[in-house]
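Appendix B, Record 12. Input sequence as logged:
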Amino acid sequence: LLFVARVAQVVVAACACSPHRFSMGAVQATCGFEDDACALWKDRFLGKAPMDQALDELIEKLFRLQDLNGDGVLDEMELVQLNKKIAMLHYGKDIDKEQLRTKYQDIFRSMLDSSGGSVSYDAFRKHTLDVLRARDKDKLAQSYILEQWVSEAVSARYSFSIPSMQSISDVPFLLLDSFEVDPDRNYPNGVADESNAVRTPPVATSMHDEPELAVKSQDVDLGLLPAPPGAKLDG
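Logged structural output:
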């Protein structure tokens, strides 16, 4: 009886149901997916609806694709770097990358972590659902939007293996043993066993020994346009 009473209190508090209206039907009718407290209660006691489960699976996949170093959290630089790749795929590799860096740093700090640090999957999920609900209340439409985002993230991550799409700011990720350009094997015939050679650009190995040679190799092997004298390296 105490347990039942406690559950009733939780439902009343979370879903704003008055005690005299308490029933399973009232709970289901009153609790909306938009209410995080209600969604948590429904997930625990009623189980997730198929569409809710599908949305969560897509969000989790999107998170894993953006977690470039695979440490289980999303860093500011990971968000910036992957979205730069997405923009390059849409608008070409000569797009203003510094402008993109500023744009996605501002997004990360205004919507995820003001210090520019790291965020957990739960925080990422909440933010993603907020964005989806602002775009469309229909869950099926939300799933289509997520599928598009996942598809773009897959292509953007794979582009790390393409020399003409690489830049200096890719190096911290390319040098990680844990980094995979195609973790879900969406391109089974696209990445050869020798792909480590692509993931470790010449500029990363020759920078300290022969600076002039390193600059030349970055222009050719990393697909960067020659920079005018005194200009900063792009990327």
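The radius of gyration is 23 Å.
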